[in-house]
Write a structure and sequence with these properties.
It is a single chain. With 392 residues, the chain is α/β, with parallel strands linked by helices. Helices cover 36% and strands 28% of the residues. The strands form 3 sheets. Strands 7, 8, 9, 10, 11, 12, 15, 16 and 18 form a 9-stranded mixed β-sheet that branches. It has a 7-stranded parallel β-sheet with strand order 3-2-1-4-5-6-17, with helices on both faces. It is globular. The protein binds NADPH dihydro-nicotinamide-adenine-dinucleotide phosphate. NADPH dihydro-nicotinamide-adenine-dinucleotide phosphate (NDP) binds at residues 7-13, 34-36, 39, 57-60, 80-83, 85, 103-104, 138-142, 180-181, 184, 292-293, 340-341, 344.
């Protein structure tokens, strides 16, 4: 039994809170904290009375997080605020000797670049404090890393190529909206693409490389190569890998709007002067766009996220696709969030559950593929994210 402190009450925080309540036999005390306490209160109202407690915290301030962790006597912190808060929350966990988990790697607010460097650099501090930090326990990163470890363990002697394929075929009825935090989403998609081949990173122009891919239960969707954070750890940990790429589907309307917004400077992260005020264009755009948490009741359709792996087993070539399909409306019916938040929040709770049960527990800072994939894959099947493997 453990006390869990969830930080962040957005789309993903809502799913994590609901799923922790469903796993109350593991998490006997659940505290949801965020910058805006009214958002915590909205989520609290959706749950049975007394199921969760709520608190206010500014997770940019280490001392505030430390104070809250001590007050609630947390055993583990699930960080589902924004990537900007990763380091402050990790440092608070080191100070209080409490386990840590997140779903996205650190990003500096003033620099459109994300990497594990500064989180990995805390490995010794975590080891010295005798605590574990699990990085990237969402869907991608997260379940996709575990799919790679599962393929490596059960299907291949050597994996030569992996393509991670992320399809959201959901329709929310808006001309343009993002399925998770707009700032994080648009910074990721509008950046140059990058993939890894023969030990080197190869850079592409934004959305320059694309291909059609037939997603089971969804159909053929044009899929665009972008850089995605899980590749940084996977290229280190998967044996014999020669190439790794990441593709995501986007509709024509999304690409058209994003390109136009980028062309006029609305995706900028530098402040601009407007009528005597300093405005950061992408932050202003976030104010105008639909709140991702509000997309839940309107979104119809499915997601299909998987890994296509090719390599050798017993001297023979082999090619498999491991994937998971979620339905936006079914997710909303269960936890009042659409599938993108659902597929992120469920793996976060599974990661935390395996940690507190001691199945995945080792001091230091770790990526998902470094642990035995089997217990995580079993949990996906029972916690709402059943998966399949097909031989191609
Ligand atoms: P939202 O923007 O919906 O929610 C973020 C929440 O964090 C809000 O409640 C926000 O508070 C809170 N927050 C922001 N800054 C602070 C702060 N300084 N102190 C305390 N709370 C703060 O984002 P999502 O729920 O969509 O995403 C959450 C995380 O999940 C992000 O890191 C995102 O990158 C990650 N993610 C990972 C995926 C994966 O598959 N691995 C996929 C999708 C998302 P406020 O209400 O005041 O703004």
């Amino acid at each position: 039994m453990a006390t869990v402190l969830i930080i962040g009450a957005g789309g993903v925080g809502r799913v994590v809170a609901h799923k922790c309540v469903q796993n109350a036999h593991v998490f006997d005390r659940i505290v949801l904290a965020s910058r805006t306490i009214t958002r915590c209160a909205e989520i609290q109202k959706e749950l049975p009375s007394g199921a969760i407690e709520i608190a206010k915290v500014d997770a940019d301030v280490v001392s505030e997080i430390v104070k809250l962790i001590r007050e609630v006597e947390a055993d583990i912190v699930i960080n589902v605020a924004l990537p900007y808060q990763d380091l402050t929350i990790m440092d608070a966990c080191v100070k209080t000797k409490v386990h840590y988990l997140d779903t996205a790697n650190y990003e500096h607010p003033d620099l459109a670049k994300f990497e594990y460097k500064e989180q990995w650099a805390r490995d010794n501090a975590f080891k010295n404090a005798g605590i574990m930090g699990l990085l990237g326990s969402g869907f991608d990163p997260g379940a996709t890393n575990v799919f790679c470890a599962y393929a490596q363990k059960h299907y291949f002697d050597e994996i030569h190529t992996i393509d991670i394929l992320d399809c959201n075929a959901g329709d929310h009825g808006y001309a343009f909206a993002t399925n998770f935090n707009p700032e994080i989403n648009l910074r990721e998609v509008s950046a140059n693409g990058r993939y890894w081949e023969n030990g080197e990173w190869i850079e592409t122009k934004p959305l320059e490389i694309h291909m059609p891919w037939e997603y089971p239960e969804v159909g053929i969707k044009e899929s665009y190569l972008i850089y995605h954070e899980e590749m940084e750890s996977l290229v280190k940990h998967i044996k014999g890998l020669k190439r790794m790429r990441f593709f995501m589907t986007f509709g024509q309307s999304y690409i058209m709007h994003m390109t136009a917004l980028q062309n006029v400077g609305m995706l900028g992260i530098e402040p601009v002067e407007h009528n005597g005020c300093k405005i950061i264009p992408i932050e202003f755009l976030k104010t105008l766009l639909p709140d991702p948490a509000s997309l839940g009741p309107r979104t119809k359709g499915k997601t299909n996220i998987g890994i296509l792996a090719e390599g050798i087993k017993d001297g023979q070539p082999r090619k498999i696709y491991i994937y998971q399909v979620s339905d936006h409306e079914a997710c909303y019916a269960e936890v009042k969030s659409q599938a993108v938040s659902y597929t992120t929040g469920v793996p976060a709770v599974i990661g935390a559950k395996l940690m507190v049960e001691g199945k995945w527990m080792q001091a230091g800072v770790w990526n998902m593929e470094q642990f035995d994939p089997d217990p995580f894959m079993d949990e996906l099947n029972t916690q709402g994210l059943p998966w399949k493997v097909i031989e191609l």
